Amino acid sequence: MYTISELANEFELTTRTLRYYEELGMLKPKRTGSGKRVYGKKEYAQLKIIMRGKKYGFSLVEIKDIVLLFDKDRTGIRQLEKTIDTAGQKLNEVNERIKELSELKQDFEQMIQGFNKNLHDLKMNENLASDKFNMNLGFDDRQR
Q1: What is the pTM of this model?
Q2: 36-45 pLDDT, tens per residue?
Q3: Rounded Cα distance, 130 and 116, in Å
């Protein structure tokens, strides 16, 4: 059994965060006679699921759906099916984002390549103009 402070320390969270998860209905700790929260193995496991879901970018609503499914189906099958479905959606989002970033990378590479060509052309034109100016003044490269 864990107190709210012990569980918060274990997961490197604030006690306020644990109370927030309780407000959302994601955690339901037992209460002592004096009203203090007591967290058992079930809440510990639920918090592990919450933290893993957050790590992988699941919304709190998605995480709550997954956490609460275990109470409805003690086999864990529905919870696992929901997790697989949600993870599949997240994977699709990641793949789409990778595609977008890859296209953005190509755009930057093309832009930089174009700027480098423009810079090279400007420098070549500057050198030609400088040489032309010096020739008009009667200087050549050997006299500089």
Answers
A1: 0.67
A2: 999 999 999 9
A3: 21
